[in-house]
Amino acid sequence: MIEKSKSAEQKLSTIIPAEIITQRIFFIRGVKVILDADLAEFYGVSVRCLNEISIFIVRTFIKIREILASNKDLAQQIEELQREQKLQNKHINSIYSLIDRFIEEPKKQDNKIGFRR
Q1: Which residues contact 115 (CB under 8 A, 6 or more apart)?
Q2: pLDDT by residue (tens digit) across 40-67?
Q3: Looking at residue 23, what is its pLDDT?
Q4: 49 CB contacts (<8 Å, ≥6 apart)?
Q5: Cβ distance 47 to 57 under 8 Å?
Q6: What CA–CA distance (Å, rounded) separates 9 from 43?
Q7: Burial of residue 8, with CB atoms counted within 10 A of its CB: 0-12 exposed, 13-18 middle, 19 or more buried
Q8: Average pLDDT for residues 13-33, to the nearest whole number?
């Protein structure tokens, strides 16, 4: 993906003194900012490469956030379906009990047809 020269690898292996980093930090509208050119120099890559990687990282986080949001929605839908299923099971059980009552054999009546003595 990113090919680094030996000088870039050497730059990454050396620790950049804190004074140099703090000199490159600017306050813009009350926010601490380091320019992309300075970051690229710290990492030993081109500005173009640094910006491409930054865009890739932002897009990846957006996808992760979308996946997490859709999973949350999916979990809510599953919970709702489970609640509905429990309610439907109660209704089905009551229907079966009514059907059972109708299916039961009627009690035999001892009343005979005709006149009584």
Answers
A1: none
A2: 999 889 999 999 999 999 999 999 999 9
A3: 95
A4: 2, 40
A5: no
A6: 9
A7: middle
A8: 91
Confidence of residue 9 (pLDDT cuts 50, 70, 90): low
| DSSP one-letter string for the chain | -----HHHHHHHHSPPPHHHHHHTEEEETTEEEE-HHHHHHHHTS-HHHHHHHHHHHHHHHHHHHHHHHHHHHHHHHHHHHHHHHHHHHHHHHHHHHHHHHHHSPPPPP-PPSS---
Contact 11, 44 (CB under 8 A): yes
Instruction: Give me 106's structure tokens.
Output: 């009627």
Any residues with CB less than 8 A from the CB of 42 and at least 6 apart, and which?
A: 11, 16, 21
Dmax (CA) of the chain: 124
